[in-house]
Amino acid sequence: MSTPALREEKSAAPEKSNQNPANLSQLLESYGSLSPYIGADHAFYEHHLLYDRVIDPAVASAREQFEAFSRSIRDILAQRWVSTKKTYEQQNAKRVYYLSLEFLIGRSLANNVSNLLLDPAVQQAAEAKGLDWLGLIEQEPDAGLGNGGLGRLAACFLDSMAMMQIPATGYGLRYEYGMFRQTIANGWQQENPDNWLRDGDPWEVARHHEKVEVKLNCSFQLRAGNIETVRDRPSTLIGIPFDRPVVGYGGKTINTLRLWTAAAPDYFDFKEFGTGDFVGALSDTLEAESLTRVLYPDDSTTAGQGLRFLQEYFLVACSLADIIRRFKRYNTDWEKLPEKVAIQLNDTHPSMAVAELLRLLLDDAHLGWDQAWELTKKTLAYTNHTLLPEALEKWPVAWFDVLIPRHLEIIYEINRRLLDEVRVRFPGDNGRVERVSLVEEGERRKIRMANLAIVGSHSTNGVAAVHSRLLRTTTVKDLAEVFPDRFNNKTNGVTPRRWLLQANPALGQEITQAIGKEWVTDLSRLKELRRFAEDGGFREAFLASKRQAKQRFADWLQSTTGQIIDPGTLFDCHVKRIHEYKRQLLNALRIIVVYNRLRSNPELDVVPRTFIFAGKAAPAYRLAKLIIKFLNNLGATIDADPVVKGRLKVLFVPEYNVSLAERLIPASDVSNQISTAGYEASGTSNMKFMMNGALTVGTRDGATIEMAEEAGEENLFLFGLTVEQVVNSRSWYSPYWHYDHDAETREALDLIFSDHFSPDEPGIFAPLRETLLTMGDHYMHLADLKSYCEAHHQVGILYADPEAWAKKAILNVASSGKFSSDRTIAEYASDIWKVEPCPVI
C-alpha cells in the first residue's frame, strides 16, 4: 500500500479554495504545507482558540490548547471524511455495519496524527508555538466507550477496515460516563464517576437532522425517587447520532463511528409543569437522558439489568433505522439488501437486531414472512466471544412483553418454526428441542439471545481456533448440528499501527531499519525478522529499545502515582479484567511460593522481578474486588520485608485503560496468559505483548495456542492442564489433594490463612479459603500451581542470559504477523461479508 508523504519544504499558504483534492497528499499540497492549520502562522489553531473559546491564545489553558489543536487536525481530515462518504454513495457500495455496545478507542489525537502521517510536522508545529506535544496528548481522556477486550477488538477492527478501504460504519452508544474511574484506598478498589465528556469532545460531530425515533409500548414515571414503567402507555425515545472519524493509515479512507445518545421528544408539557408537577413534567426527559448515561449499569439489581436491556434495544433500533434509511436512499429492490448491507453483531448485545430487522421488513416494507426471514439471515452475522454460560445473555420474556411486545411475537414465531424443523430432522429428540429453543422455560421464562443470534444469521464465528471448536462441540452443540454450515473461526487480531508503531516507537524504528516500513500495513512481513534473531547487533538494538520502554514507563509511573520501580528488574506483567477464570489469584500464589523460598533461603539466586498487575473488577463482583485487595496487601507485605527488598516487588496499577496499556505493554518482559484452559475465548492482550517482544507464560487456551504454533512452543513457556484434562477431571478433582501432597502449595495457603498479609484485618481473606479449598477450586488454581512455578523458574534462567532472551523475544515479534486485525478483517470481508474495498476518489 502506498502512503502519501508530506512535503518537507515550507512555502507560503495560498488562499483556501473549494476544490476537493483526490487524496490527502493533494489536500496538503493545496495549502503548500500545514501552515494554515498548525504550521508557521498557526492560523487555524489560534482561530479555534479565539472563535471557539473566545480566549486570547497567550493565556489558553492546556485543555483549551488540546481542543484547538485537535480541531485543527479535524480540519485537515474534514474534506477527506466528506469525500469518503460521497464515494460510498456514488458507488452505491456494499457496506459493513459493525454493531457493538463497546468501542474502547482510547485517545484520538495521537492516533489520528499518526494515521494521517503527520507526526513530524505536527510535533514541529507544536514546538514552534511553544506547546508541549506530550502534554497536549495527556489532556485527552480515554473515551469511556468500553471496558475490555470486546471493545478494544471493535476499535482495532474499525482501524483495519479504514486502512483496507472497506466501506464501514461502527455503531455504538455515546455513554456520558464510562464504566468507572478506578482508584485504590487501603488496598480496595474504589469506583468513581468517569465523566469523560465533562469538557466536551473536539472529535465528534452531532447530526441532529438524522435523529431516529424509537417507540416503546410503555412510558416511565418518577415515584419515590425511582423511575417506574407504566404499561400500555406508549412513549418515544429520540436517538441523536454523534459521528467520530476513523482515520485509515495513510489518510486514504476516513470511515465513521456513529454513537447514539438518547433524548426525550421535542415537546414539553407546560400544563403539567404549570400545575406544579415538576417531577411528572420532567420524568420522560430524565428517563431518556439516563439511558445512555452509563456504560454497564450495575447488573446486580433488576433495575440495572432492565436498563442494560433497554440500552441494547436502543442501539439496535437506532442503528437499523439508520441503515435501512441509507439503503432505501439508493435502492428500491429489497432483494438487494444482503448485496448492499452486511451487519456484524459483536457478541449477543445487539442480537435483538434479528427481531428488529424482521419487524422492519414485515411491518414497514410489507414483505411476506419467508422473504423477510431469508433477507434477515443473509444480512446478519454474529460473533460469539465467550464459552461461559453466565455470559450468554438471557432476558426475561416479561421485559419484551412490556417494552417491545411486537418483537416478542416475532421471536415466538421464529421459535415455532425452528422447533418444527428440529422435530422433523431429529424425531423423538425432545432434549435437543428444549436446548435449541429460543425460550428457556422455568419459573421466569427467558429469551436466549445467543440462540436468537445464531438462528437469525447466516454466520456464527468464534474468535480463536480452540474457542470455535468448543463453541461448536460444547456450548451450542445442538444448534451447530442443526446449522453446521453457519459456524466458522476468525481468530482475533490487533492493529499494529496503535500497538507497535505508536506505542513502541523505538522498537518500531528498529524493525523499519531492518526490514523496511511495509510491515505497518502488512504485518506478515515481520517474518523477515527471523534471520535477525541471530544478529548480535540487532539483538542489542532490541534490548536497548526494551530498556528505553521500561525506563519511560518507570518515569511515567513515578510522575503520576509516586510509585517507584526499578527498570533494571524483570517486568512480570498480568493485566486483564479481574475475574476468577483469568486467575490473578494463581499468579499471587506463585509469588508467595517465591517469597517463601527467599524467606527460607535468603541466599537463593533469584532474578529480581517487579510483578505488575492492573485491571478492573465489576462493582458487584465481590471476590474479584477481594483479589485486588489481596494483591495490594501482598505488595505492601513484601515491600516491608527486608529479606526480599530489591528482589521482589508487587505493584497494582489502578485505572487500567488503553493509554496505560500503550505504556506498559512495550515495557513488559513477561506476559502472563494463565486462564483456566477452555475459558478464554481468544485474548488480544496476549497478541499485543507478543508483538512488543514480551515472552508468554501461558496455558494452552484461546489464541495463545496459535501463538505457540506460529513461534514454536520452545519460544513460549506453556504449562498446566489442557482443555481436555480440565473437562475430564471435573468429576474427581479435589484441591485438598494438592494441599496435602505439595509442601509449597500448603505453605503458601497457610501463610494467607494465618493473616500474614492482613495482620490488622484478621480473617479478611477467609473467602479465598472457600474459593480455593472449601468450594472445590472451580478454576483449578492448585492443579496448575506447581507447573506454573516451574515455568517461571525457566523464565528466570533464560532472563539471566540476555542474548538468549533477546533471540526468543525477537522470534516472538517475527511470529506475530498472523495476529494483525488486518488479517482478521480480510477474512471477515472475504468469508462472511462478501465486501470489496472501495477506494475513495
UniProtKB/TrEMBL annotation:
Cofactor entry: pyridoxal 5'-phosphate
SUPFAM superfamilies linked: UDP-Glycosyltransferase/glycogen phosphorylase
Enzyme Commission designation: 2.4.1.1
Region listing for Disordered, in residue ranges: 1-22
Broadest EC class assigned to this enzyme: transferase
InterPro entries, per the entry: Glycg_phsphrylas, Glyco_trans_35, Pyridoxal_P_attach_site
Gene Ontology terms, MF aspect: glycogen phosphorylase activity; pyridoxal phosphate binding
Record key words, sorted: Carbohydrate metabolism, Glycogen metabolism, Glycosyltransferase, Phosphoprotein, Pyridoxal phosphate, Transferase
Residues with PTM N6-(pyridoxal phosphate)lysine: K688
Record field: compositional bias (Basic and acidic residues): 1-13
General function of this protein: Allosteric enzyme that catalyzes the rate-limiting step in glycogen catabolism, the phosphorolytic cleavage of glycogen to produce glucose-1-phosphate, and plays a central role in maintaining cellular and organismal glucose homeostasis.
Family: Belongs to the glycogen phosphorylase family.
Name of the protein in its database record: Alpha-1,4 glucan phosphorylase
Organism (species): Acidisarcina polymorpha
